[in-house]
Design goal:
240 residues; Rossmann fold; 2 domains; four-stranded parallel beta sheet; 8 strands; 18% strand
Length: 240
Amino acid sequence: MTTLVLAAHGSRDPRFAVTVERIAKAVGEQLAGVDVCLAYLDLNTPTVQQVLADCEGDVVVAPLLLSAAFHSKVDLPAIIDDACATNPAINVRQLPTLGSDPRLITALADRLDEVGLRHTDGVLFTAVGSSDDAADGAVHRRASELAAELDNPLVQTVFATRLGTGNSNVRAAVRRLRLGGARRIVVSPYFLSAGLLTERVDAAVDALAPGAQIAGPLGAHPQLVDVVCDRYRAAVHAAV
């Protein structure tokens, strides 16, 4: 049986570990009989290096990352290469990041529905932000896809790592939504878990748009879990 390693970023915020543990549990329940291991790239243990050192045979590494940026393009491949060099008993395949799958748009829409999204609302789509222009471009495409899913053109993107001086970027996005006719602001966090970055955005929005609603992060949404499981099954099937 091929081992599945879920590679999460890691965080000092304990809510992150709780969230990805829920994802790992849900994946394990759906993939009955598969050895599902949770590992971290940074800040938490066990690390991806530690988990791969203990594996044998075929291994599929599924990044629990939303954007294809440094961690998935450089960091994780280097870790895998080093692990294979030191542990010749493993054969590792890395899967793509999660964000390219359209089912995550459905999951985001569900989270917005949970807080009572209205057609007159403006949606502030928030994501981490990256030094990788392609990754940021992909986030903007996700925002456009979410607008199409909601049939609501009032969607603006703000990167949580670039809120601007005095939250100027948040202020500008809220202003554009208001000018477009939004009666209320609703935040759609493109994050796996709540944490420091989401709280910074929430605080800025609360100050600039009193009465705003904050949707929950993706978390262990069934659609996200399905993406992980389906990609694992496809990888194992392709290797046969």
